[in-house]
Backbone:
């Protein structure tokens, strides 16, 4: 049976340690990729929501403008009927 020298044993431990470090790096990279994907998904969700809110605001402002125009037309029509114009 062959006994390992101190050098061989040390080299084996270094190789084992480097393999462990490599595995940890791979796991960390996987977590980073997953986190980046979540951030991208959240950014897209926020963008879609902002677009929906902007469209709603524009619709509400247009509705407000339409209401003002209709009210002004009613006032003008009332003035015309009353002979004020």
Residues:
């Amino acid at each position: 049976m062959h006994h390992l020298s101190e050098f061989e044993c040390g080299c084996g431990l270094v190789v084992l340690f480097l393999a462990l470090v490599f595995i940890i790096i791979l796991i960390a990279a996987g977590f980073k990729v997953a986190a980046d994907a979540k951030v991208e998904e959240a950014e897209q969700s926020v963008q879609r929501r902002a677009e929906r809110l902007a469209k709603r605001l524009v619709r509400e402002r247009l509705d407000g403008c339409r209401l003002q125009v209709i009210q002004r037309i009613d006032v003008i029509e009332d003035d015309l009927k009353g002979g004020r114009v």
Q: What stands out?
A: The chain has a mean pLDDT of 90.
